[in-house]
Amino acid sequence: MPEIIAYTDGACSGNPGPGGWGVLLQAKAGQKIVKEKELYGGLSLTTNNQMELTAAIAALEVLNKKSTITIVTDSIYVKNGITVWLKKWENNGWRTANNKKIKNIELWKKLHELAKNHTVNWLWVKGHTGNPGNEKADSLARRGIDSLKK
Question: Rounded to an integer, what distance in angstroms lies between the CA atom of residue 35 and that of residue 14?
């Protein structure tokens, strides 16, 4: 069974503003990439965090069977949200520790539901440091913004 890696990224031109998301999906056998797929899209009025979440959602939505996947993100918001904060939010009726409404709750709920169907490993990488997968996901997210102009 190939290893699946999804490099995800979001971008925004203004925050809020036009935004894009990008995903580079790779299936690997050992160190060799055996299949690759690029996904991107955009919204005319959104935030960077919403695009980061949307990229992770898109990576999981494209899987057509239960899989083990590593989602690589440069967003601490996504990484900590799904691995640390989400359980607390869920236990607190989807509210913060200060009893405030969670921002982007519908996206968080969707990501949570999709992740339940797979074995997901979450990996944070620092953005814009030359990681080829992260750089490609960033490029795809910017393509998502550009696609809005057509």
Answer: 34
Q: Quick one: 55 exposed, middle or buried, by C-beta within 10 A (0-12, 13-18, 19+)?
A: buried
35-55 pLDDT per residue, tens: 999 999 999 999 999 999 999
Pairing state between β 3-12 and 17-29: antiparallel
Crossing angle for the helix pair 48-61 and 105-116, nearest 10 degrees?
A: 20
Query: Does the pLDDT of residue 123 top 90, yes or no?
Result: yes
d(CA 14, CA 20): 11
Residue 112 falls in the annotated catalytic set: no
SS3 96: coil
**Is-catalytic flag, 19?**
no
Give yes or no: 81 in active site. Answer: no
For residue 18, is the peptide bond before it cis, meaning its omega torsion is within 30 degrees of 0? no
Which one is catalytic: 9, 19, 20, 41?
9
